[in-house]
Every structure is written in C-alpha cells, then in structure tokens.
Amino acid sequence: MTTATLDRREAPRTRARPNKRPTPLRTIAWHGLMVLVCVVSIYPLLWMARSSVVPETEIFSSPSVIPSSIDLSNYPAGWVANPPGFGQFMLNSLIICVGAVLGNLIACTLAAYAFARLRFPLKGLWFTVMLGTMMLPGHVTLIPQYALFSAVDWVGTYLPLIVPKFLATDAFFIFLLIQFMRGIPRELDEAAEIDGAGRWRTFRSVMLPLTVPALATTAVFTFIWTYEDFLGPLIYLSDLNDYPVPLGLRMFVNAMGNSSYGQLFAMSLLSLLPVFITFLLFQRKLIQGIATTGLKG
C-alpha cells in the first residue's frame, strides 16, 4: 500500500455543503409575515391620527384608518382646552425630563466609574446591593418615599421627581455604564496616570469621551421613561399649573362621560413628537450604545 493511498484514507472526509438559498415562496411568505407584523404594530398609531382629524361623532364609528372627512379643529381646541393649556403641560414635562436626564448622567456615570475602576472596601457587597435594588418593585418603596418627601415639605414640587436622580437611584443605568466601562482597556487609564493625570482627570478626559454611546443610551431612555411617567407626578403634584403631559392628557377624559376624545387623540399625537425627535437625533449613538454594552463584559 503506497503512502499516497494511506494519506487519502487518513484525510478527513469533508463534503461541501450545498448552498441552500431560500425559495421564492418562502421569501414571499417571510416578507408577508413581516409586513403583517408592521401593520398590526402601527395600526393603533394610524387610527389615533385618523381619530384626531374627524368629528367627535365619527371616532368610534369605524375601525378604518382613512378619515371620511377632515376636521382639524381638535388641535387648536385641545391646545387650549384645559387651563393652563397643553403648551404649559409640555413645558412642565420638559423641565422634569431635563432635570432627570442631567441627574442620571452625572450620578450614574460617577457611580459606574467607581464600580468599574476604583477599589474601595466592601465593593462587591455594595455592587450586590445595587443589583438587588433592580429586583425591588417600585411600589414597595412608594409609601416610605412619600413619607420622606412629605417630611421635608417637597410634596407639591418637582423635587421628588428630580432630586433622586442626582443620588444614582437608577441601578439599571449604573449597571449599563459599568458594563460599557469594563470594556474600555485599562491601559488607557495607566497611560493617563503615567502622564500625571489623577482619578478625576482620567475620568473626565479618558473615560467620558469613550462612553458617549452609553451616555446617549442613558439620556434617551431616561428622557422617554420620565416623559411617559404617570404615577410619580400623580402622587407628588397637585397644582394644575405643574402637571406634565401624562396628567394633562388624563384631563380630557371625564368620569362623568363628558370626554373629548377628538382633542385627546390630537394632543396625544402631538405629545409623541418630543420622543420621536429625541430618537431621531440620538438614533445612531443609541443603537451603538446598546450593541456595544451587550457585547462587552
């Protein structure tokens, strides 16, 4: 038996796998399913847009998204329907959201940097406690928080909605930033220390510029969640002039039956614009932050 024959027998037998291409029928079925899912997902938004431009009597008369007649009076009427007006509600939401975003960006970033880079006593214990707060339902701390804020005379102001953000109370964003910072090479910190940079300058000049995608993710999600929060303002705010958008929309629905659904849908559509614009402006950084945070450990 020759050497060539032995080599052929000992060589692993690998067969080229045929390149399976999707059949046209399967491709059509898959795209059809995706179109159906998109239609089902976007139908409520289209129906709300249609309901905002039809007379009040036609809103619930048909499930169609095509209006039989167009009446734009719901928009100016809804804008001034509930004093102090929907513009004031949106301004109030903007004030709360800006404070919450700034608080989370400052406090959560500092806390994440401490867990990701610094050494301090009981670091593992505090990290476990921080993760444990993510599993604690918010309703459990609702009454103690209200009692605390009432004792310091903060009820009726925006302080209970903004100040806790400056105390790094959102463990989700701390964990997100920790995971991102752990993916940044420590050699950059060591190079900064060799150049004479202290902890604060290393954090400000090295870590912050590299964590922009994660910071954008934190800012966008904080803005959206704060903007859509209904329970917090409902508990702590009592003056109509301080109401944000969710409470302002609730005023269009009357328990006695005198509800203005046309104006409600019109203002609901307008209230989506800040969220939509925010996502468009930070879309690239948001996707980059989510993707890289998920990959880095």
TrEMBL record:
Keyword Phosphoprotein: no
UniProt-listed InterPro entries: MetI-like, MetI-like_sf
Residue stretches spanning the membrane: 27-46, 89-113, 125-146, 158-178, 206-227, 261-282
Compartments it resides in: Cell membrane
Gene3D superfamilies recorded: MetI-like
The UniProt record lists the keyword Transmembrane: yes
Positions of region (Disordered): 1-20
Compositionally biased residues, Basic and acidic residues: 1-13
Pfam families: BPD_transp_1
CDD domains linked: TM_PBP2
Region forming the signal peptide: none
Domain ABC transmembrane type-1 residue range list: 90-282
Keywords: Cell membrane, Membrane, Transmembrane, Transmembrane helix, Transport
Topology of the protein relative to the lipid bilayer: Multi-pass membrane protein
Protein family membership: Belongs to the binding-protein-dependent transport system permease family.
PANTHER family cross-referenced by the UniProt entry: ABC TRANSPORTER PERMEASE PROTEIN MG189-RELATED-RELATED (PTHR43744), ABC TRANSPORTER PERMEASE PROTEIN YESQ-RELATED (PTHR43744:SF6)
Protein name: Carbohydrate ABC transporter permease
Species this protein is from: Occultella glacieicola
